[in-house]
């Protein structure tokens, strides 16, 4: 290279470093009439480290300058007919060793032997297209500090993913898509620029980058497989050689690799398996969540110009369903390929099956159970699968029935009696699955909130549906779990009265009417509790003999002075105040007591002593217990 031209080329690199677009334009676009001055520079050049003005501008954050450089490359680009030929060789030894890449390509071009470096054209005509400059190898890791140089990023997209720079990644993916659409030599469709960076995003758990790559490139989506499952068989006449026939099978993937085309996703390891093998819990959770399915659906919807994606979009109304089925199928693959990890527990003692029940995911639970997962597993607090189904690992009570019936139906019928009566050490201790759910769902009524309106609407239709489904499921066991004390010395029937849940109370005594006369640890039956609560409410606000004119009191309440009541309030059928929760419980208990035996079931001495011991040790245990967390608890959602 002549000295003057070399100096100007270095100036173009320096201008890219500074983000000086005016200087770059002056060096590459402006021509001079002076024959002694060199003509415009070719911008598509690389230094000995394989950096170009474009890559330097990107790595320095001058994105507008980088985009303008590619426009200059387009202006200088002139495609020339190539006399180059390609020669392919097969490594037979590598083939027998089972390696995938057994074919190598060699470019044969006589022009490479001609030394014409000194010939400089007055008008720049560059054979390098913007797409070629964009996608060329670049040792971007050299822009990192010394501690991070081991990452060894080989292009700009990998650099953006490795740095978790979502804005830069989106810029590069959008730019790559624009250049692909502009380049006539590239097959129409989606060019997967993020394929090589995708494993990095999975391994590092950079969810923003994962979402961007999926939305723009659809990496990992088996389109042909999804079309076949939708009943669509797409037969295309191959445009290229489909590869050698090896053991009766065409190796189209070898031929595709030789042409520089991406390999079909069906031949690659699925993203979920890659995430599992890399040990990235964040990526595994993302691929199992609806967010990943929505990202793939957005990719399909925005690329309907591709025939296969358009067919897939038209074949089903809900695109998320086949994508979710595909992801769930990978859970089955994980269970088969890594059975030794099915019983691995987190720091809190949760196996994958326990997490599936806690999340309420019946599909994943079914896959794990069919693969042989242990259904008797319990966490560090003694919570079994039914405990975790009704209240998740964080102690949040289920508010809607959802797929409770489906999850319960997956359990081995031989284990049901023990699963219903096993106890958890969660506060207040000795909690069966139903008792734990009730303690987490309701707050006890206190005297400070007395009044017939203070506790209305605590039980919902969804909670009642959960109870009814659960009691129907437990009918074969004789509802023995309803007869068991919790850490406070109450049965679930006592708790229903205590928390003012008349419909839940009615459902329970419908299955076990004898528990109406079952004593708790203090010797009180549910009937007596209901009576005491109603008497307490009825006498807590007696009517005033003399009205206090200076104090407002609603006219419709029975405690208002009779002289202040409206005359029509004395007519028959005039709407009275609605029945309170305690009044309803008292009425239901009395109605059931009149039709059932009054045989009282006394609390035993052993039961009372056991409750007393639990209450005595509860505070000590709570003070000495420390919760241990790990990545499972941090990423659980």
UniProtKB/TrEMBL annotation:
TM region(s), chain numbering: none
Organism superkingdom: Eukaryota
Keyword NADP: no
Record carries keyword Zinc-finger: no
ANK repeat ranges, renumbered to this chain: 348-380
InterPro entries linked to this entry: Ankyrin_rpt (IPR002110), Ankyrin_rpt-contain_sf (IPR036770)
Keyword terms of this UniProt record: ANK repeat, Repeat
Name of the protein: Ankyrin repeat protein
